């Protein structure tokens, strides 16, 4: 059980490092213009190599098979369960001061409705 816990900890550290490198890589890609673009390009290439190496190591640890055609799933987020239907709903609609948009003069509609 201690071995499992250690491997899970190592895997979560790798995943955090991959996420961190991915965020840095995205930031550098956005900055990849201007007078220092060659330095940034070299840094991007190095980070991409590090990211690929870490992803391969992570895949071998977890037993996942790397297939470039299949995107890696993003980090799973917790989803909240909807409120029970038995709870009362109180829907309020706030009416606009003017019947049309004050900027463009177009017709107004409720959000979430076409």
TrEMBL record:
* Database matches in Pfam families: LZ_Tnp_IS66
Origin, by domain of life? Bacteria
Boundaries of each Transposase TnpC homeodomain domain copy?
A: 20-91
Which key words are in the record?
Coiled coil
Q: What start-end ranges are recorded for coiled-coil regions in this protein? A: 4-64
Return the InterPro entries for the record.
Transposase_TnpC_homeodom
Q: Where is this region: Disordered?
A: 72-91
Give the protein's recorded name.
IS66 family transposase
- Species this chain originates from: Escherichia coli
């Amino acid at each position: 059980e201690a071995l499992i816990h250690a491997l899970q900890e190592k895997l979560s550290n790798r995943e955090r490092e991959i996420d961190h490198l991915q965020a840095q890589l995205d930031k550098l890609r956005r900055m990849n213009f201007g007078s220092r673009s060659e330095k940034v390009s070299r840094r991007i290439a190095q980070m991409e190599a590090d990211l690929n190496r870490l992803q391969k190591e992570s895949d071998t640890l977890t037993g996942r098979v790397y297939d470039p055609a299949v995107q890696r799933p993003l980090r799973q987020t917790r989803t909240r369960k909807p409120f029970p239907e038995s709870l009362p709903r109180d829907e309020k609609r706030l009416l606009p001061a003017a019947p049309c948009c004050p900027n463009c003069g177009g017709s107004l509609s409720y959000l979430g409705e076409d």
